Each structure stands twice: as C-alpha cells, then as structure tokens.
Amino acid sequence: MQKRNATILYFHGNSQNITSHFLALGWLLIDGYEIIAFDYPGYGASSGSPTDELVYTTSLFVLNEVHHQLKMQNHSMIVFAQSLGSAIALYAIPDMTDKSNLKGVIVEGSFASYSDIALEKADGFCLPPFTYLAKALIRDTYSPANRIASISPIPLLVIHGERDSIIPLSFGRAVYQLAAEPKKFMLIKNGRHLNWIYPGQAQYRNALKNELDQMLGNAAVK
Fold it and tell me: 3-class DSSP state for residue 18?
C-alpha cells in the first residue's frame, strides 16, 4: 500500500455520528489516505447544543486546526462532506485563515439553502400557504448559497445521486451552478442518498480516487 501525502477531513451528515458514518470513507484507508472525522456539538460524544452558530464555530476551528497541523507536516488536506455536512463545510471554508494546503473540496448530497430544503420537505406534509410558512421559520443565516463561489480557486467536486429522494438532484445541481471554476459534477446513475460509496460500487469509487489524484497532483504519494 502506498502512503498518500494527504489527509481527508470528513464532515458527516445529519443522522447518527462519526461512528455510523465511517464506512463512507473508511475504504480509502486501504488506498493510503489518512482520515480525520469529528462530531458536531450535540452529536455522538460531543458536548454542547447543535445550534447553527456553535456548529459553525466548531467546524471552522477544526478546519483551521487540522490545516495548521497538516501544513507543518507538509501534508495536503482534502475536505469531504456529505448531506448536512456539505452545507456546514461550504459555509465555513471561506472563513479559514489559511487555505494554502487545502487541495480540494468534495460535497455529496449537498444543498445551498436550509429554507429551500425545509420547503421541499414541507411540501410532502403541508398544504399551501403552510409550506411557505415553514420556509419562513427556517433561518438561512448559515446557508452557504452566497459563499459557494468563494471556495474558488480550490477545486470543487459536487457528487449527487440521480434518484436521491432525501435531497433531490436539483439541489446538488444548484450548488454546482453557484460554484466558480474549477468545478466538476459527478452524477451517480440511479444513485440514492449517499448509497453509492459503500461496497459494490467500484466504478464510482475508482472515479472518486481519480478525482482525488487530480486534486493532489504531485503531492499524492510520498
């Protein structure tokens, strides 16, 4: 096994915690990558309440600290975020104090607006005008829509399942449209919410590894 000169910082989704989400990227350990994962406040063994502000400040602290430690080791950093974690990461990354060793950002099952997701979900349970009331009650203060373009010039890869019923494909396409170059979109044919990355999906796993190699360039292997 080749040792990769890169570490993946993982932002997990809304349900459960880092233990239950680890399989999403654990297979990359075999390919030589190191992985760092953390729980948001109020998730898993983490203390505190999962307020928007505390989740943001915690995530920004982790981004800055991990980047600093990796930079001292001349070690590259990739951010991989799924579902809710995508919105959290896309909002926080532009505020990092130093991004010189951040070689790429990958988001899967992503969305740009909390209120738009609230409206999408409310449509299935409410009747107008209550759906719009539901959207109005969800604050977009920490939504990443106006920040996604600021990820550039760091490469951004947006991954989305074609048949994702939790966060429909249109939300991932919206994230891609808001992003500035360099950016890529990977469509998972017949894919559902976050299910492509688990065992039995060699085609897309290999595609992801190729994208990682491109992001890292000459820094990929040591």
Answer: helix
Q: In what order do the strands lie in the sheet containing 183-188?
A: 34-37, 6-11, 76-82, 102-108, 156-161, 183-188
What pLDDT is attached to residue 135?
A: 46
Residue 75 lies in a domain: yes
Angle at CA of residue 108, ends 64 and 69, nearest 5°: 20
Closest CA to 30 of 206, 219, 217: 206
| Residue 159 belongs to domain spanning | 6-112+147-217
Specify the pLDDT at position 134.
44
pTM of the model: 0.89
Q: Is residue 15 part of a domain?
A: yes
Helices marked H in 14-105 — which ranges? Answer: 18-21, 23-26, 52-72, 84-92
Burial grade of 172 (CB within 10 A; 0-12, 13-18, 19 or more): buried
45, part of any domain: yes
Rounded Cα–Cα distance for residues 203 and 198 (Å): 11
CATH number for 194 = 3.40.50.1820
- How many domains does the chain fold into? 1
Q: How far apart are CA 93 and CA 178, in angstroms?
A: 15
**Domain contains 141:** no
C-beta separation of 35 from 25 below 8 A: yes
pLDDT tens-digit map of 95-148: 999 999 999 999 999 999 988 887 776 655 544 444 444 444 467 899 999 999
Amino acid at 137: L
